[in-house]
């Protein structure tokens, strides 16, 4: 029975080798980041195939992203001469799709069923609500959508939901109607892919048994992030709980790390690990404790940080890699300075022959990428944004830009078509065709053809054009950022995304467009020598290099004249210049496929990946940890796991940076550095900027009076630097170490640090710090529901709560 040693096992440590060669029974590999879980899972597949224990068709492997699935196939085909195409390796959604196509009759679906993405789903629900005259104030479509998706994630059909009140009954009724509509139209949403394939397996014994016999080995990576339905789906493929009765049954091999569970907000259940061990009677549990990814300064930092979480399953990680470089910490005066420092550091790394693809920039939310992108772009460093589009290519940004273009040029038909029915305003494809026909035969733009379209279509499109005209009129005399605010509000874009289940990120991106405009001064030069001039949050101009630097000379040249007209001196409107800037930054300058490029992504998208050098940016209270999650302990622990994931992506060099000021969502914020800094071992850190002395005067990188004076000019009250005590929050979110020092400034008010206060808009909070005096006095307040904010005391009405 002894299986001959395989060269595949060479180089694995004892535990890894044991995990790879486990007998065909259920197993759980629980191990920390970088311990080789994914490598073990992949090697096990190769080993099972090579030793003839299974054929490619007998493998079902679930990964978390398509990227991970592709990587796994690539690795497998490099280990073994096999055809990986026939193997069932993919994401849950991908595999469910494949399953439903194969069993569409049983699933009662046309084989060509269409998949609704989140946005399509919402449009479908809206249509439905209209048809049945649902009061959308009482039952907002987004809420219905949230309700339906939640039910499906819990495996519930309308008949399974217990409705306790009128409102719940109405929602269930709509859920049922929505199902009928989807069924009639032959479409399925994401949740339905999972649920429908689960039901086919549950209700059809022969099919289920077929797959149970076929898939001898079921392997799941990132098991800690599975939700209830996904777990139930996996159970369908496995033979019933064994109790030693079916040694010929199949084997589920689950791999995970409770410390990296970062999708609770989408229903992920770490509890699935314990359930799995119990329900599957798992006899083989292996822990991997050797980390092969990171140097010990990085690993110790990760271990120390995560030790602040409670309810952990408990694992140790060690490394033989040596201390390596210290973790470098940088404090910038502005987000621009932060990005600029990062770019300079990257250039130095590049000089030391670090490939750009081994440099990654991680951030907590997508909107943060814009400043980084601009800095990289201006430095001529190619970059690629993962798990999301580059800022100016994101759908919501393109929609907003389309409105802006139409303000500049009503005859821009592409932009017209992009937004004529977005947000949806009931203009159908037929009406648009009619309009296009008229425009074609009259040889004019869509805008100019509107008056010739008759009937209901004419009225609806006419209203859209009228709206544009009003916006154009109102925008006269406005600054660029005011125009953009006007457009994103009055186009309906913000309302549209705000109501969407996962639209928060898009709203933030739209607000970020306002930030972009505020820092935008103009464009100089022509073509590839064009330079976008920008200023940082304090109004300081930033040095910028030509866009062409470092780029492939074969890139298309922008022909538009960007300089003032030589005769008349006329220059582009700020809006036109800004749109040009947007065009410059999108499209062709994206790193070519295969080109060595810096990697940009959110921490969520970085799960499972690794890089030599990692920059974690925006390490500030309210950003990371995110303000939405700071008020409760579970939220904070999830943020800490996210930070753990971020740190453990780095092999050799880790950089953490934060900034004193940041322009985000159209506002300048003064953030304190993240509490996570206090949870890292001091011995592993190297502060690149002096830490501020207690209650000190501004110190630190490139700071100094000049910029702040400048700030006074641009922003009114001077952004006095925060006191130097580090945020030092304890678990309840109370600041510690407050009030031990600093004379209270004279402000003529009785608001003081440590005090509970009430604010009309932000509700209850606690004062963290007071800065400045007289008219300049400002308070930093941590609000229970809105996170940390700086408020000018002369304006903000704060009522002390006894
Ligand atoms: P994560 O939790 O981040 O998903 P992981 O546990 O899946 O991490 P892997 O990505 O499989 O870890 O491995 C981390 C790195 O360590 C990879 O570069 C991998 O090739 C390497 N590695 C794993 N095991 C060994 C080993 N025995 N010898 C040398 N390198 C190894
Ligand atoms: Mg992994």
From TrEMBL:
* Keyword match Kinase: no
Per its UniProt entry, which superkingdom is the organism in?
Bacteria
Give the PROSITE patterns listed for this entry: UVRD_HELICASE_ATP_BIND, UVRD_HELICASE_CTER
Q: What does it catalyze?
A: ATP + H2O = ADP + phosphate + H(+); Couples ATP hydrolysis with the unwinding of duplex DNA by translocating in the 3'-5' direction
Q: Entry's CDD domains?
A: DEXQc_UvrD (cd17932), SF1_C_UvrD (cd18807)
Q: Start and end of every UvrD-like helicase C-terminal domain?
A: 296-608
Which keywords appear in this protein's UniProt record, sorted alphabetically? ATP-binding, DNA-binding, Helicase, Hydrolase, Isomerase, Nucleotide-binding
Q: Which residue ranges does the record annotate as region Disordered?
A: 699-750
Which residue numbers delimit the UvrD-like helicase ATP-binding domain?
A: 10-295
Q: Which GO terms describe its molecular function?
A: DNA helicase activity; hydrolase activity
Tell me the protein family, please: Belongs to the helicase family. UvrD subfamily.
* Name the record gives this protein: DNA 3'-5' helicase
